[in-house]
Amino acid sequence: MVEDHGADELLNEIEALGAKLTTARAAIATRIIGQETVVDLSLAAMLAGGHALLMGLPGLGKTRLVETLATVMGLTGNRIQFTPDLMPSDILGSEVLETASDGSRAFRYIEGPIFAQLLMADEINRASPRTQSALLQAMQEREVTVAGQTRALPAPFHVLATQNPIEQEGTYPLPEAQLDRFLVKIDVEYPDRATERAIVLATTGGAEAQATGVFDSASLIAAQTIVRRMPVGDKVVDLILDLVRACRPDNPDAPETVRSHVAWGPGPRAAQALMLLVRAQALLDGRLAPDVSDVARLARPVLAHRMALSFAARAEGIVLEDVIDEVAARTTRIEQAA
């Protein structure tokens, strides 16, 4: 086990945070009906201090979810609608030349909407690659450089981006380097009939429910610290490493399905993401430590955007998520048998 001093104190902090997260989920549920997995993954990404990419067709509540999360988590939020004509300065801000009353001139920096604790990048794949890349430094280093000067972003800083499927007309695929900076990719699916009925009734009446704040920026940062202190068993750590390494086609120990179908696999950042997310998921489930089932459960959302099928595999109709599921099941069996 990963040891930590003050075990009793940490136990109390984990239990208190778990209760607070239960309240937060209930507050989110007043505006987001169904989609429990989507909500949990979004919360887990924030507890892990990372960014999330929400993937789904228009009209499935992605924007509403991000707005609700900003309220419940007590964060200042900004929204950017990504369009083909959006420029990097529209995100980062720019310097303008101002003339004072005495006739003197000086440049003044005007902050862009990226200076927020929760940035919603709406339909991120509708902007050009040049504009998409404006987020790279911010997502990794929590700072931006404009006109040669580096400026820190507010803490905490999270990007929750929404994306339409690449097959939709007028979209640009995100570069691999940027995809890797998203801790998790969350697929937003159509609701079932009962959930859709509840949504229709709840959102077409006289007044809609309003979410209430549960966290603030300080308590979220404290929660992120607790997540990183949460104990993780050696078996879970080994399973994370075995799973990530098994998804690399150049690994001679990788299963045949990976070596024959995968073009490139996940790097060490995937293992880091899994390590943080299994802890956050355990917290959300009211448990004091993650177990091996959390690794298999989170394999898809952590690995799917960090891997790519070969052209031949795509031509054969191979589905990447099925490959991940197969590798996760195989790795779990081997680890449990060890």
3D architecture notes:
This protein is an alpha/beta fold and 338 residues long. It has 2 domains: 1-231, Rossmann fold (3-Layer(aba) Sandwich), CATH 3.40.50.300; 232-338, Helicase, Ruva Protein, domain 3 (Orthogonal Bundle). The chain is 47% helix and 15% strand. The protein has 15 helices and 11 strands. The chain has helices spanning 7-29, 36-47, 62-72, 88-92, 129-132, 136-141, 176-179, 193-203, 217-229, 234-246, 256-261, 268-284, 292-303, 311-315, 320-337, and strands spanning 52-55, 77-81, 93-99, 105-111, 118-122, 143-146, 149-152, 158-163, 184-187, 262-264, 308-309. The strands form 4 sheets. It has a 5-stranded parallel sheet with strand order 2-5-8-1-9. The chain has a two-stranded antiparallel ribbon with strand order 3-4. Helix 1 crosses helix 9 (217-229) and helix 13 (292-303) packs antiparallel against helix 15. The chain starts with 6 loop residues before the first helix and ends with a helix. The model has no long low-confidence stretch (mean pLDDT 88).
**CATH fold descriptor of the largest domain:** Rossmann fold
User: Roughly how many Å is the radius of gyration?
Assistant: 21 Å
What is the CATH level 1 assignment of the largest domain? Alpha Beta
Shape: globular
Q: Ends: how far apart?
A: 17 Å
Which regions are unreliable across 5 or more consecutive residues at pLDDT < 50?
none
List how many beta strands DSSP finds.
11
Tally of discrete structural domains:
2
Strand percentage: 15-25%
pLDDT averaged residue by residue? 88
Query: What is the percent of helical residues?
Result: 40-55%
Structural class: alpha/beta
CATH homology-level superfamily of the largest domain: P-loop containing nucleotide triphosphate hydrolases
Question: Count the helices. How many?
Answer: 15
**CATH architecture identity of the largest domain:** 3-Layer(aba) Sandwich
Q: In which order are the strands of the major sheet placed?
A: 2-5-8-1-9
Largest sheet: 5 strands, parallel
Oligomer: single chain
